[in-house]
Design a protein that fits this description.
heterodimer, A: 5-stranded mixed β-sheet, B: about 40% helix, about 10% strand
């Protein structure tokens, strides 16, 4: 019996030297014992170094592919591996093509070792998780527990991938250290030698949870590729159990949930107006045509949306469309519209340069014979419709807003302010922009007292002038009330 | 609205990206970070850095640039009319996140897609901007997969191909009728035109490479696409015909199939019932038979019943049961093409049979060492000590080989 002693569990060069010498002496595999490290005394001669061969001219036959496989198989924890490899090599001397006999038991056994080590090597490349070392830029440490002895075999992969980082991979038996220039190996370490957390791990877990599709649970498929033994060092693994538990519930919830009313481009106007296509206002108008936000929406012919250039500096907000507006689908075109046009002209304003809209976009009325009698909108209508007004204001961004009448003031300010007071001191719109107030042209038309009506009309023109002036200034509101102070 | 932090954005935009099945990081050019100033390598075979409980591999950081979208595709969680929460990454944020993840060995690289915002050019420009930062400024040598937007400026598509390892564009539905109905803004012609452009670029690079080795590479890992199963009424036969057409016309590396799964806030136009996940698996198997096992479309038709692959047995077995006249196949004599048609034998087993039979005539026991379950293969082969005789002609053979019904229910 010959004993061949190797320096370490993965001492490939040592094994190769012994194997070559043993072959030269034609020692049959069953007469060799393989041993790692300095062993206790044995009854046999110990070959610390290969003995000088009796047949130095003998050139063993070996295929390149076998050497590659043998190097990998040596990383396996199987105690029999040295013997198996030597046996194959020995048999190969008489049968050069042995390795291609896929049904030979030794070949199958080696195949299984190689497969197991390659898989472990691949899984190490996959499951090593680096943690940044605090206070040292671009320095990372990982704690990993491989199944086989693959650290040295695998470390060059990490050098190629992370050539410009400083890193260490610690395992129970061996450690690899790389300082951007040189790769070095040291003894095993413990988990406590690695950082215990990394700030990015919360983000990684968030990603893991979000990319999982609860509608297609396949736990077995996951386990086959990411066996449980690796879980303890994967920061994301703690999520697996809760994700599985919630999955069925979630999916049931999704199927049962009734489809929600669809959203439209208007939402984008709130969040990221710059994401909208060029003609955003037109798109908004199309969306509004299908509005179903409140019970009021199904009344009347349709939505009467605002109109005017998207870069208007002055926005005029009325109450709601009337009979004529509802039929034509445009704001301010009935008798009140005529009055407004006249007032605009007197104030030196062009209607084409303004953005005209209403606080409520549908006509509210009670039918009486062949007439539709105007009804004021309810507070809930104003609140619902503010959604559209907000979207319009996001896109148009007027410098000055003129609210005509109590409904418009309520929509813009978010609370009731008497028209008189708002005219005097102005108000802040919900988006923080300056708001002015004036009488609604329809209120002037309804005013039975002629003298009062004339006064209100003059006030309307004056308010329009003031609004016009303010669009040109860096606004410090010039209100009558302020002037008196 | 308060600004979303990085964590919230990632949650929203990864959630929005998960319906894309592809996560491959394989098949690109070999390279690594030595001699550079950044990180990253690619060595042919991609690496799956984690697996989610849905059994899918997590190889890349798969996110959307934004889930705002002007399109209204019914099957898509990000369609404009959906109520999901919206978010948007800047190119800078995405590049930083990719590097942060990569340095901790969480990922192989980035798979970036986006909802369509403003215009196709604008959207594509944003995607390309991320790849530009990663490649040029960070010297990132990991994997990049970019979705391309049909109708975007060809110059941008070209730049995408030069920066990325793979580009893809999803056809989503196997038929034009399905596309018209469920994805009104998607135009089959334009999608095909975009794929054609990509193929042209890839072909051009490969041609040029023959004479100039340093020719700038173009999407070296090729282009791919995705089809959703079970959202419209397409049969398996239609699906496979479409993908055969796409593979052939545009030399796609992969067609991914994704069984339609219920999405949050789904459109009422869609079936809420999902197709069995097994259907997706069977279609993948048939796709493999077509690409690697020498099956043509007629063979696949033979495996089907009314245009659908059986769910309880795999397509190769289904085909073999109907073509028993071609069996048994003698494992000691048959050509490789015939061996590949034996149910239960894969490419690797066939290669092993071919090399092992040069040493000695193979017995049934030998074949047993090379495959998982000899009982299933036995009826279809002849070995030196085995002939199936009556076994192959039995009427009950299908029932013998199919899994038991209760196991079926689990598999679904």
């Amino acid at each position: 019996m010959r004993v061949a002693r190797l320096d370490s569990e993965t001492d490939f060069e040592g094994w190769r030297g012994h194997a070559r010498a043993l072959l030269c002496d034609r020692v049959p595999p069953e007469e060799v014992t393989w041993q790692v490290g300095r062993a206790q005394d044995t009854l046999f001669d110990i070959l610390d170094a290969p003995a000088p061969p009796r047949d130095p001219d003998y050139r063993p036959r070996v295929s390149k592919r076998f050497l590659v496989d043998a190097k990998l198989a040596l990383c396996h924890r199987d105690e029999e591996r040295f013997g198996l490899l030597y046996r194959l090599l020995y048999r190969m001397q008489d049968n050069a093509n042995l390795m291609s006999n896929a049904v030979d038991d030794d070949v199958i056994r080696l195949g299984a070792l190689v497969k197991s080590v390659s898989r472990d090597r691949h899984k190490m490349r996959a499951f090593v998780r680096f943690r940044a070392v605090k206070g040292e830029p671009d320095t990372f440490v990982s704690w990993f527990e491989p199944e086989h002895r693959i650290v040295e075999e695998n470390a060059p992969f990490f050098v190629r991938r992370f050539a410009n980082m400083k890193w260490s991979i610690l395992t129970p038996e061996r450690s690899a250290h790389y300082d951007r220039r040189e790769l070095q190996f040291g003894p095993g370490a413990s988990q406590a030698d690695a950082p215990d957390a990394d700030a990015l791990e919360d983000l990684w877990r968030t990603y893991y949870g979000a990319i999982f599709n609860p509608a297609r649970l396949k736990v077995k498929a996951m386990g086959a590729e990411m066996p449980r033994k690796y879980w303890k060092n994967l920061p994301e693994a703690e999520l697996i159990a809760p994700l599985i538990a919630d999955a069925r519930k979630l999916e049931a919830g999704m199927v049962e949930a009734a489809p929600t009313p669809p959203r439209r481009l208007a939402d984008y106007a709130f969040a990221e107006p710059d994401l909208l296509p060029g003609d955003a206002l037109a798109a908004l108008r199309r969306d509004a045509a299908g509005c179903a936000l409140c019970d009021h929406a199904c009344h009347a012919t349709g939505t009467v949306f605002g109109e005017g250039p998207p870069d208007a500096t002055l926005m005029i907000v009325g109450e709601q469309p009337g009979d004529r507006e509802d039929i034509a689908g445009r704001p301010f075109i009935g008798p009140a519209g005529d009055l407004l046009d006249a007032a605009l002209q007197e104030a030196g304003l062009s209607r084409d340069a303004l953005y005209l809209t209403n606080a409520v976009k549908h006509f509210r009325f009670t039918p009486r014979g062949k007439q539709r009698i105007h009804q004021s909108p309810k507070v809930s209508h104003i609140d619902h419709c503010r959604w559209w007004l907000k979207a319009e204001r996001k896109l148009v961004r007027p410098r000055v807003t003129l609210a005509m009448g109590a409904t418009a003031i309520r929509a813009l300010a978010g609370r009731a302010i008497p028209v008189g007071t708002a005219r005097e001191v102005g108000f802040d719109c919900f988006d923080g922009r300056a708001g002015l107030a004036t009488f609604h042209p329809a209120a002037i038309l309804r005013q039975p007292d002629t003298a009062e009506a004339t006064m209100m009309r003059e006030a309307l023109v004056a308010d329009l002038r003031r609004a016009k002036a303010m669009t040109g200034e860096d606004i410090v509101a010039d209100f009558p009330a302020n002037r008196e102070v | 609205m308060p600004a979303l932090d990085r964590l919230e954005k990632l949650r929203i935009l990864a959630d929005a990206a998960k319906y894309d099945a592809s996560c491959s990081s394989s098949g690109s050019t070999s390279r690594d970070s030595r001699g550079g100033k950044g990180v990253g390598s690619s060595e042919g075979m991609g690496i799956c850095h984690s697996y989610a409980p849905d059994g899918r591999c997590i190889s890349l950081l798969k996110v959307l640039m934004t889930n705002y979208c002007m399109f209204d595709c019914r099957f898509c969680v990000n369609r404009i009319s959906s109520n999901v929460q919206r978010a948007r990454f800047t190119p800078e944020e995405l590049a930083t996140l990719t590097i942060d993840f990569y340095k901790r060995n969480y990922i192989e690289g980035l798979f970036l897609s986006s909802g369509i915002i403003k215009s196709p050019d604008y959207t594509m420009e944003q995607l390309v901007a991320v790849a530009r930062i990663l490649r040029h400024r960070e010297d990132f040598r990991g994997y990049i997969h970019l979705k391309t937007i049909p109708d975007a400026d060809p110059a941008l598509l070209r730049e995408a191909g030069v920066l990325a390892d793979r580009v893809s564009i999803n056809v989503e539905l196997p038929t034009k009728a399905g596309l018209d109905r469920f994805a009104p803004e998607k135009d089959e012609k334009r999608i095909r035109a975009a794929m054609a452009t990509t193929r042209e670029q890839i072909d051009g690079w490969k041609e040029e490479r023959r004479t100039i080795r340093s020719a700038p590479k173009f999407a070296p890992a090729g282009q791919s696409t995705q089809m959703i199963l079970g959202a419209d009424g397409s049969s398996d036969a239609q699906v496979l015909r479409s993908s055969a057409d796409l593979y052939g016309s545009y030399r796609l590396k992969r067609v991914y199939y994704s069984a339609f799964s219920p999405i949050p806030d789904s459109s009422k136009d869609l079936p809420l019932r999902r197709p069995p996940l097994m259907r997706e698996h069977r279609v993948y198997q048939a796709d493999w038979l077509w690409r690697f096992y020498g099956f043509d479309l007629d063979d696949l038709d033979t495996a089907m019943e009314d245009g659908m692959l059986p769910l309880d047995i795999d397509p190769k077995l289904s085909w073999a049961l109907r073509r028993r006249d071609l069996f048994p196949v003698d494992v000691n004599r048959a050509a490789k093409e015939q061996l590949l048609r034996i149910p239960g034998l894969g490419e690797k087993s066939v290669a092993k049979i071919l090399s092992a039979r040069r040493h000695a005539r193979l017995r049934l026991e030998d074949i047993g060492k090379l495959c998982r379950n000899i009982r299933k293969i036995r009826p279809f082969i002849e070995a030196s000590d085995w002939r199936p005789t009556a076994l192959l002609d039995r009427a009950g053979l299908r029932a013998d080989l199919a899994p038991k019904p209760q196991q079926m229910a689990l598999a679904l």
